[in-house]
Amino acid sequence: MKKRLLGLAIGLSCLPTLSFADMHFSVGTGYPFFVVPELSYGTADDQNRWYLNGKFGVTGGASLGFEHALDGEKHHAIGLVGGALGIRNGHTVCKEGQNAGEAFVCILSTAFDWEVVNGVGLTYSYNFKGLNNRGFRIRFEGGFGEGSRSHKSKGSGSVILSYQF
C-alpha cells in the first residue's frame, strides 16, 4: 500500500511540469480493436512521445506506451508498450454427443470466446506528418503476455490506424 501511495505522489508531483500544449488526442481503428481513443504527450525535443489509450472491440483494455522517432522527419518510430496487446481466442472446446441445443450454445459461445492479452511488447509506427504532428499514423504492436481469463502465456498483437488532432 505504501508503494502505491509513493508512486501516486511521484506521479502527481510531475503534473505541474507537463504543458497541456504538448498534449494530443487521437482516435483510431484497427484489428483486433475497433475503436482506440488515445491521449499522448510529446517531449520538448519532439523526438519522443508517451501515450495512454483505451482499446475497444469484442473485448477491451488499455495500454501505456513510449515511442522514439528514428529519422529527421520523424516519420518512423519504434517503442515499447505495456497493457492490452491484442485479442486471442479462449479455445472453448465443444464435446461430442451433445444434443442440438447444447451444440448450438457451444458453437455460439465459441464464436464469442475472446480474451484480451495483457503484457509487454514492441511497436513500430509510421507517422505521415511526423511523430507529434496532426495527421494519420499507423502503428503495429506485438508482444507476449497473459490471457485475461485463461491466464496462459500468449503472443499477440494489433494494427491501429489513427488520426492525431
What report would you give on this structure?
There is one protein chain. With 165 residues, the protein is an alpha+beta fold. It is 15% helix and 53% strand. The chain has 2 helices and 8 strands. The protein has helices at 2-14, 100-111; strands at residues 23-31, 36-42, 48-56, 60-69, 76-89, 114-127, 135-147, 153-164. The chain has an 8-stranded antiparallel β-barrel. The chain is elongated. The two termini are 38 Å apart. The model has no long low-confidence stretch (mean pLDDT 82).
In short:
The protein is an alpha+beta fold.
Task: Give the helices and strands, then pairings.
Elements: H1 2-14, E1 23-31, E2 36-42, E3 48-56, E4 60-69, E5 76-89, H2 100-111, E6 114-127, E7 135-147, E8 153-164
Antiparallel strand pairs: 1-2, 1-8, 2-3, 3-4, 4-5, 5-6, 6-7, 7-8
